[in-house]
Design brief:
The chain is an alpha/beta fold. 37% of the residues lie in helices and 21% in strands. The chain has 3 domains: 152 residues, Alpha-D-Glucose-1,6-Bisphosphate, subunit A, domain 3 (Alpha-D-Glucose-1,6-Bisphosphate, Chain A, domain 3); 209 residues, 3-Layer(aba) Sandwich (Alpha-D-Glucose-1,6-Bisphosphate, Chain A, domain 3); 86 residues, 2-Layer Sandwich (TATA-Binding Protein), CATH 3.30.310. It has a 6-stranded mixed β-sheet, with helices on both faces. Helix 1 crosses helix 2. The chain is globular.
Length: 475
């Protein structure tokens, strides 16, 4: 068995510790072996490779390209740091078999990652990830072809992935209406790949865009990590108030996650954003189709499903579950608690750029403020409140927590009666108000996450504190 393990989205590690050029070569060989098995007889195999703005990401991407080329796979290599959704869209646009994306997304600055995607541009299912893992060789076992030789042989070709993506984007959202709406927007790119995209897409008209954190800085100043949740977004929210802006649009380090703040500098949490995006598509756009959600995200979606007569499918956590289910059901929207949302008409991959554009279009088409949109959602499904606590832990602590949760049978949590227990992915305790508490081990980091959503604002903290106690994580 390989010592490299793929989590919910691929493999991540600490740069210069386990995330090394040799281990990237090994992962690339495992991926090359996998996608070669998916090629049809006589098909010339190809793949897309892109990267983010982290330390040496472009060099790690070139290293992965050398391995794929060494296996006879043509590589379309992005010509610079490129958002994850743009890389994903390039896969079907180039009729490639998949993609490698060198990014650690929202992780701390010391990390980098190796994301893999299939022929749809979406996440590879768990069985496929196991096959990639199984094909990872020992050190020195990767086939490589030197970069310059691969270029000369036509096995590595640099390209601009934005052209096809933007052409499709124009079919999904009315960019001209947003451009001329006269909005004042703060855009927080979190030092990542989302920088420059809103000015490019909706700039040049009456709408003004004030970008912050829009240069390359792998240390990610003014935030703990480029994850679009508080406190990382607080500078952007303060800037929204200072600029008297109408909204704060946020993308994470690789621009696959969407964050949003209102005109008062108040963060609209990612569960509410999921509800807003679903409502926008169902009501404003009049579209219909299934909703796919992970069990860690909002129960507002089940309420919207009943209101608009659409099915709602629940999966385990991670787009390795969401993407295949979206493809299977031709879903209207799919998403997860982290702020990652995918949409029909695009590839089954999270898209923070499109998510923010849809929210702005919602404002433009309804004439509502950002805070007004949230109140409109709550008028449909009732107010919902969410928070989470992350606790670092050792493998031994994780197993002890798992053992406690297996046998836990609390009668009440936060004063609310427990009505059920779901162990699909973690331990989810269903509560009498339709809310829930979830305790789950992260698939990408050494963390135990405790989450809740409830209709009682004053019970968020008591529910989380009870969850921490049930998991045995408190001191």
């Amino acid at each position: 068995m390989s010592d490299i393990k793929f989590g919910t989205d691929g493999w991540r590690g600490r740069i210069a510790d386990d995330y090394t050029f040799e281990n990237v070569r090994r992962c690339a060989q495992g991926y090359a072996s996998y996608i070669l098995t998916t090629a049809r007889p006589g098909e010339a195999p190809s793949a897309v490779i892109g990267h983010d703005k982290r330390f040496q990401s472009e060099d790690f991407a070139a290293t992965a390209a050398e391995v794929l080329a060494g296996n006879g796979i043509k590589v379309f290599l992005t010509d610079g740091a490129t958002p994850t959704p743009v890389i994903a869209f390039a896969v079907p646009a180039k009729r490639a078999l998949g993609a490698i994306n060198i990014t650690a997304s929202h992780n701390p600055p010391q990390d980098n990652g190796f994301k893999v995607r299939g022929a749809t541009g979406g996440a590879i299912d768990p069985e496929g990830l196991k096959r990639i893992e199984a094909g990872i060789p020992a050190a020195g076992g990767a086939k490589t072809l030197a970069y310059e030789r691969a270029v000369k042989q036509g096995l590595i070709e640099k390209f601009d992935a934005s052209t096809d993506y933007i052409a499709n984007l124009k079919t999904l959202v009315d960019l001209e209406a947003i451009r001329n709406a006269g909005l004042n927007i703060v855009m927080d790119a979190m030092w990542g790949n989302g920088a420059g995209w809103l000015p490019r897409l909706i700039g040049g008209g009456k709408t003004r865009i004030h970008e912050i954190h829009n240069t390359r800085n792998p240390v990610f100043p003014e935030m703990r990590r480029p994850e679009p949740i508080q406190p990382n977004v607080d500078v952007g929210l303060r800037t929204t108030v200072e600029q008297k802006a109408d909204a704060c649009c946020i993308t994470d380090g690789d621009a696959d996650r969407c964050g949003f703040g209102d005109e008062h500098g108040v963060f609209i949490n990612q569960l509410s954003v999921f509800g807003l995006l679903a409502l926008y598509l169902l009501e404003l756009r009049g579209q219909r189709g299934p909703i796919v959600k992970t069990l860690s995200t909002t129960s507002m979606l089940e309420k919207l499903g009943r209101l608009y007569d659409v099915p709602v499918h629940e999966t385990g956590v991670g787009f390795k579950f969401v993407a295949p289910k979206m493809t299977e059901t031709n879903a209207l929207i799919g998403g997860e608690e982290s702020g990652g949302f995918a949409f029909r008409g695009n590839v089954p991959e999270r898209d923070g750029i499109l998510g923010n554009l849809y929210l702005l279009d919602f404002m433009v088409k309804t004439g509502k403020t950002a805070s007004g949109l949230l109140q409109y959602l709550f008028s449909k499904v009732g107010a919902h409140y969410y928070d989470r606590i992350d606790t670092r832990c050792t493998p031994e602590q994780r197993e002890a927590t798992r053992a406690r949760l297996e046998t836990a049978k609390p009668a009440t949590i936060g004063g609310l009666k427990v009505t059920g227990k779901n162990t699909m992915d973690g331990y989810k305790f269903e509560l009498e108000d339709g809310g829930w508490l979830l305790v789950r081990m992260s698939g990408t980091e050494p963390l135990v996450r405790v989450y809740t959503e409830t209709t009682h604002k004053d019970l968020v903290r008591p529910i989380l504190e009870d969850g921490v106690k049930i998991a045995g994580l408190s001191s």
